[in-house]
Amino acid sequence: MISIADLLVQPRLPGSYYSSQAYVQGDLEMGLLENRRGDRLLAIPSPLIEAIYSGLQRETGQAAGMVLFNCGRWWGKNFYTRFRDEVTDYYEKPLVDMSMAEFLHCLKDCWATYGWGKLEFDQMYHQRGFIILRTTNSAFANSAPADYKVPVCSLESGVLSAFFSQLVGRDLHTIQTTCESLGDTCNTFIVGTRSRLDAAESMIEKRDSHESIMTVLCA
Amino acid sequence: MKPVIESLFHDAETCYLKSDEIVEVSQYMSSLKERTRLYRTIRDEEITWMQPIADDLEQCFPTEQIDRLETSLRNAMLSMRHCAMAMLMDDPTYLEGHFLTWFQESIEIHGTSDLDNHIHNALRKQISQVLNTSQMSLLTPFLHKIESSFKPTDVINDDSLLTVAGLF
Known about the structure:
Chain A is an alpha+beta fold and 219 residues long. Chain A is 48% helix and 13% strand. Chain A contains nine helices and six strands, in the order ααββαααββααββαα. In chain A, α8 (194-205) runs antiparallel to α9 (210-217). The termini of chain A are far apart. The mean pLDDT of chain A is 92. Chain B has one domain (36-157): Orthogonal Bundle (Globin-like). Chain B is globular and about 60 Å long. Chain B is mainly alpha-helical and 168 residues long. Helix content of chain B is 73%, strand content 0%. Chain B has seven helices and no strands. Chains A and B meet through α1, α2, α5 and α7 of A and α3, α4 and α5 of B.
């Protein structure tokens, strides 16, 4: 027999942890922006992102993408740790025991509430060892210089690479095949092992389509 | 708080409130006592209302897994808590911002539309016997929004994606 009183033993009925209206809180008198656990949040204005792109381009030239990717890897490690702690605490369930649907539900809400845009997951190539993620309204794609000829969301690629590496306990890499900054409707990322993604690097530089890249990767 | 009224509070530097705006504030303030009383009733009766529904649910869905029944009962209580808060603040946008999108996706993920619909109908029946007409009219707009979430959906049932641990 189900006891309602027993269902209410926990301090809360878990709902939408990353609901933007509940997650982002502020103390204007103290000048603080915080999440619902009291961890400090930092808002980054678009001019800063534009300046990071142009500064890196001037200082490091073609290595700018790699620098951003490595920054994203570092950021992604911390992002994963915070995401895991928050979700585990709130839903009282280890991340690895969550169903994929529940996990993605949280990640999508988190991504949107952090102002990183809308995240979609495509499981079509999961059985072939690749995760496909699509984002729209990326702040990084929108703030990149117009003269980049390749996908520019290197920071997000790094974040996703570190995030999924930590999640599954394997060293994973991420490449980007489409980009809003190049007129595509979304930013498409492929997450997989580095050795299997290497073949796609030159195809991305030649601006081959996502579909043709996937065909080569899965061959 | 009701968004229209909240926006009025930020407009003091522009002008005094117009007559119709004062009427709106006044109507909200005069209804607050009734809203507070109703909120307190919903809060205090949560277990009393839900226990018979839980008992009935087990009989109506005897082959259903207990944890799925419990998930739906928790979500029903959660939806009632959000409805009560939205009613207290008289905020028609509250549910969209805090709960509805998450709830709809949760129903889709767990494929519990039938269970959720059954619980909600039973809860509706239960509270309509206890609350008076005026109280029901305060709560009904928000219950309607919850009802709109119950669309039959296919259960996401791909075993290969059962847990995060199964990735790669």
